[in-house]
Design a protein that fits this description.
About 30% of the residues are buried. The protein is globular. The model has no long low-confidence stretch (mean pLDDT about 95). α1 packs antiparallel against α2 and α1 crosses α3. By secondary structure, the protein is α+β, with helices and mostly antiparallel strands. The chain has a four-stranded antiparallel beta sheet with strand order 1-2-3-5, sandwiched between helices. It has five helices and eight strands.
Length: about 150
């Protein structure tokens, strides 16, 4: 059974590994190897993730087998990170994470959720009521990546 709890600073290592696997394995059919390296790096960078997790808020999903995914939410309603390990994809983990993030946003009286969704995440967010604001082409580490600015009014 999937359990959802608040992110803690100690989750940085598991989150880094989930992110790396999601980018490098979970988007193989959508992004080239060069694009995935530009986005996710050549290796898991724990120092960067340790720093990020000192200030991030959100939810963490796990089961008896270990970490499954995480999603962040800032006070302005922006979802920066939304990643599920490829082994747990399409099993309701992302939906469970989003349900908790949306519940928290409503409890904080946040009027709108926003995100910049990858090609892989855009259909997920669309299923959860987000609309595309604009398609974007962004440069990252020598590669161009397509993503979508999206929003959902609460």
């Amino acid at each position: 059974m999937v359990s959802i709890r608040s992110l803690t600073a100690a989750d940085y290592e598991a989150a880094a590994r989930i992110f790396f696997a999601a980018v490098h394995e979970g988007t193989r059919n959508l992004y080239t190897p060069e694009q995935r390296r530009a986005w996710g790096g050549e290796a898991v960078n724990l120092d960067t993730w340790r720093s990020v997790f000192l200030e991030v808020e959100g939810c963490f999903a796990e089961d008896e087998g270990g970490p499954l995914g995480f999603m962040t939410l800032d006070q302005a309603g922006y979802i920066d990170f939304a990643f599920v390990h490829p082994d747990a994809a399409r099993k309701g983990v992302g939906a469970a994470l989003f349900a908790e993030v949306e519940r928290r946003a409503r409890a904080q009286a946040i009027a709108e959720l926003t995100t910049n969704a990858s090609l892989a995440a855009q259909p997920f967010f669309a299923r959860h009521g987000f609309e595309i604001v604009e398609k974007e082409e962004i440069a990252r580490n020598g590669a161009t990546l397509t993503r979508y600015a999206m929003r959902k009014t609460l």
